[in-house]
């Protein structure tokens, strides 16, 4: 198994270089001819797009592309009690807000990847998708302010059109700027900043709601609180313009050209042509994420009902996965870069997550402990899983591959979000935890290192 994994790493490292050996901690590594071609601002130490200092700046802005999206995605989870009370809805209806976010991405993530690779290009595509995120959050907040639940569902649908496709654009940017031995670290950093957005949401929205009660009550107070989320979406939209500027500038200075393939009708063959490894990663991705995000969406009420937690403690425990992953993701990404054991790391993370759900289900241990450990496990799985797509597909198909992977993920999240709400309404949280553990058992079986890695190796040999 180790020799097969070394072969994958070797193959990945033989991909075309961008002109440097290590963009985060190493030197530039450019030859004299390239150096002579750089003129003006591009020739200086800080402004050369291949210099580590310049890449640090771009990476920081890049990390904030999805900050607003992640902040607003879990607005419902942070305000579950308030939403169900002010809007007079059931848990099943509440969870439909997550389903409405996911449904458009069953198709649009793939379409978003196609649009990035073939039609709009990466820079314009990211701006368009960030615009959908901002507009969707505004409509969502307006629906709450007017007590129109159907309008809130429309807002989540619009928000979903841009949310996952913006992540596709962010991943494609990362691969384009850092496709080398530091890719796991870069993905870990992006995940970290995104989870900071989720963490801020979980810890800010309830106090903000209490503050807004000075000026309004009921669903109007809820609407005003949700409008604050739109400000974070605007910030992310501005970041897409900034990254587009730096990417365009790099293209001009290095005399490259953004490659946009000729637009073609989407065909089933486009999906079949992907290697088996991509589809295996899609299955692993959906089987894991459906045990994390829907659970966090319902976690606050669960902790209050089973463990007797106060609303503040329940919110803190529910957000702990995001807090831990915000710190741990880049650390684990760096470790995975150094060891090269993506599949092994991922399998361990799945097994630990299974243990966390079992602890929450069968014991009364303080929920902060299993949720903190789950945050570590989630960081490991996410940091190891997503960069593997770049190991398998060529550059020109990266956006499409990430789009398909997130489309499959959102199909699972949409279905499981609805099922989770129904399970809670009909049978309670104990059965819900059993349901999640069954998914993790399936996921762990599908991600056993030897079988999965052999399949990935066979797929790579067919490239």
UniProtKB/TrEMBL annotation:
Keyword tags: Lysosome, Membrane, Transmembrane, Transmembrane helix, Transport
Record region (Disordered): 1-26
Keyword Plastid tagged: no
Composition bias type Basic and acidic residues, residue spans: 1-17
Catalytic activity field: L-lysyl-L-alanine(out) = L-lysyl-L-alanine(in); L-histidyl-glycine(out) = L-histidyl-glycine(in); L-lysyl-L-lysine(out) = L-lysyl-L-lysine(in); L-arginyl-glycine(out) = L-arginyl-glycine(in)
Superkingdom of the organism of origin: Eukaryota
Membrane topology (UniProt): Multi-pass membrane protein
GO molecular function, one term: transmembrane transporter activity
Localization: Lysosome membrane
GO cellular component: lysosomal membrane
Annotated InterPro entries: MFS, MFS_trans_sf, MFSD1
Pfam families with a match to the protein in the record: MFS_1 (PF07690)
Transmembrane residue ranges: 56-78, 98-117, 124-146, 222-246, 276-299, 319-336, 343-365, 371-393
Stated family: Belongs to the major facilitator superfamily.
The protein's assembly and partners: Homodimer. Interacts with lysosomal protein GLMP (via lumenal domain); the interaction starts while both proteins are still in the endoplasmic reticulum and is required for stabilization of MFSD1 in lysosomes but has no direct effect on its targeting to lysosomes or transporter activity.
Function: Lysosomal dipeptide uniporter that selectively exports lysine, arginine or histidine-containing dipeptides with a net positive charge from the lysosome lumen into the cytosol. Could play a role in a specific type of protein O-glycosylation indirectly regulating macrophages migration and tissue invasion. Also essential for liver homeostasis.
Protein name: Lysosomal dipeptide transporter MFSD1
Species the sequence originates in: Ridgeia piscesae
């Amino acid at each position: 198994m180790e020799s097969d994994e070394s072969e994958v790493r070797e193959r990945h490292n033989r991909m075309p270089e961008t002109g440097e050996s290590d963009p985060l901690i190493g030197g530039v590594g450019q030859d004299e001819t390239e150096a002579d071609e750089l003129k003006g601002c591009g020739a200086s130490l800080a402004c050369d797009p291949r210099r580590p200092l310049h890449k640090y700046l771009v990476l920081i802005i890049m990390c904030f592309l999805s900050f607003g999206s992640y902040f607003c995605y879990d607005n419902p989870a942070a305000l579950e009690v308030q939403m169900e009370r002010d809007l007079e809805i059931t848990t099943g209806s509440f969870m439909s807000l997550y389903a409405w976010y996911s449904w458009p991405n069953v198709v649009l993530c793939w379409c978003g990847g196609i649009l990035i690779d073939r039609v709009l290009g990466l820079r314009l595509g990211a701006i368009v998708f960030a615009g959908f995120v901002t507009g969707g959050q505004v409509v969502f907040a307006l629906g709450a302010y007017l007590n129109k639940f159907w309008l809130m569902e429309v807002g989540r649908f619009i928000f979903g059109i841009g949310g996952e496709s913006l992540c596709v654009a962010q991943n494609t940017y990362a691969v384009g700027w850092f496709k080398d031995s530091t890719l796991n670290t870069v993905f870990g950093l992006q995940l970290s900043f995104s989870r900071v957005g989720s963490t801020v949401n979980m810890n800010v929205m309830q106090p903000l709601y209490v503050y807004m009660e000075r000026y309004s009550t009921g669903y109007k107070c809820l609407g005003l609180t949700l409008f604050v989320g739109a400000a974070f979406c605007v910030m992310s939209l501005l970041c897409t313009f900034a990254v587009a500027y730096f990417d365009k500038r790099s293209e001009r200075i290095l005399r490259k050209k953004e490659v946009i393939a000729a637009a073609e009708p989407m065909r089933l063959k486009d999906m079949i042509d992907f290697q088996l490894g991509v589809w295996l990663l899609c299955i692993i991705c959906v089987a894991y994420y459906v045990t994390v995000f829907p659970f966090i969406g319902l976690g606050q009420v669960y902790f209050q009902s089973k463990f007797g937690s106060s609303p503040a403690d329940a919110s803190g425990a529910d957000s702990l996965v995001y807090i831990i992953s915000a710190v741990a993701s880049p650390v684990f990404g760096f470790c995975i870069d150094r060891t090269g054991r993506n599949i092994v790391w991922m399998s361990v993370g799945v097994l630990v997550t299974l243990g966390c759900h079992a602890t929450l289900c069968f014991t009364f241990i303080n929920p902060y402990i299993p949720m903190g450990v789950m945050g570590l496990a989630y960081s490991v799985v996410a940091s190891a899983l997503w960069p593997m797509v770049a190991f398998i597909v060529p550059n020109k198909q990266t956006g499409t591959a990430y789009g398909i992977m997130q489309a499959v993920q959102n199909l699972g999240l949409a279905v499981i979000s609805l099922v989770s709400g129904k399970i809670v309404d009909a049978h309670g949280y104990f059965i819900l935890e059993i349901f999640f553990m069954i998914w993790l058992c399936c996921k762990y079986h599908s991600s056993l290192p030897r079988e999965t890695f052999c399949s990935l190796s066979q797929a790579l040999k067919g490239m």
